[in-house]
Amino acid sequence: MVKTVGIAKNGIIIRPGTADYFDASSPRGHSRNRSSDWNLDGMGPDNTLGLDHENAHVDKGGIYHYHGVAPSLATSRSDGHIGRAADGFEIHYNGDLMKPTWMLKRGTRPTAPGGRYDGSYNEDFELVLEFGNLDECNGATVKGKYTYFATDTYPFFPRCLFGKNITKFR
Question: For residues 149 and 93, is the Cβ–Cβ distance under 8 A?
């Protein structure tokens, strides 16, 4: 199931994950059949989901949402505060000052879809804590306050929540 992790200050929801998985039997090459365990990344190199210039698109339910940092958001706030996560913590964008701890794996995928790791699937990445200055949820404590960061590289937005999800957040 696609998970909404937050909402941008402009009211557009942040939903970095997808419900699509590699599926060789599908004409599109992906479907909601999870059996391959290769989850399509919306910001992958081939723009498979047809994202617009704001790194967003409309899903089958008619909801426009971000998969990555929108250029208009990135330049709209001098303080970097671009939204709020579903657990109440702020989401900031500070260009390349904050570096995720997720790295693209080297080599080739051991099962179908095969090919080299290129960022098409979430499983193309691995957590390497020494690689960046953010935690696994793309957050950090800055000046005593936990904050999530939107980044220009994977995972782009938090993919997990540090705090407890606010039940009324929808």
Answer: yes
Phi then psi dihedrals of residue 22, to 5 deg: -55, 135
CB 150 within 8 A of CB 67: no
User: In the predicted model, is pLDDT for residue 1 greater than 60?
Assistant: no
- CA of residue 45 relative to chain centroid, distance: 14
Q: Is the bond leading into 155 cis (omega within 30 degrees of zero)?
A: yes
Domain parsing of the chain, residue ranges: 6-150
Q: How many CB atoms lie within 10 A of CB 23?
A: 20
- H/E stretch holding 40 reads none
Residue 142's contacts (CB-CB under 8 Å, 6 or more residues apart) are none
Please give the Cα distance from 52 to 66 (Å, whole number): 10
Cα–Cα distance for residue pair 89/7, rounded to 1 Å: 11
Among 118, 10, 136, 132, smallest CA distance to 66 is for 10
Q: How far, in Å, CA of 65 to CA of 16, rounded?
A: 8
User: Rounded to two decimals, what is the model's pTM?
Assistant: 0.91
Specify the pLDDT at position 170. 52
